[in-house]
Design goal:
Structural class: alpha+beta
Strand content: 5-15%
Number of helices: 3
Radius of gyration: 24 Å
Helix content: 10-25%
Length: 110
């Protein structure tokens, strides 16, 4: 189902613009939003930021804020089982080592 975007006036004229949280929640519920999030998924190169500053980017503002982009928040999550399986060597010979991993898999290593 495509995300519906309703027409809104210029961002500088808006007083009822959605914040990032509202926008995210509405997208997740397939509801209309004022605009789609614009994210920088890779860090900006230091050389690029320095060039942009020479070209007019204020030195005290981050490019994400200057460009009106949405912030991408990194939350470190582990997808390992809790508690993790104990690593154990099941067997070992001159060619292979067979062990259980922290995910509970039985693997044969060379």
């Amino acid at each position: 189902m495509p995300v519906e975007i309703f027409e809104a006036p210029d961002e500088h004229e808006r007083t009822d613009a959605m914040n990032n949280r509202e926008r995210f929640r509405r997208i997740m519920n397939y509801e209309p939003v004022d605009r789609l999030p614009v994210l920088a998924v890779e860090p900006f190169e230091t050389m690029a930021i320095k060039r942009w500053q020479r070209e007019g980017l204020p030195g005290d503002i981050h490019p994400v804020d200057f460009l009106g982009m949405s912030r991408l928040v990194h939350i470190p999550l582990s997808f390992d089982p809790i508690p993790a399986f104990e690593r154990q060597v099941v067997s070992e010979d001159s060619e292979y080592v067979v062990e259980t991993t922290n995910m509970g898999a039985l693997v044969r290593l060379f």
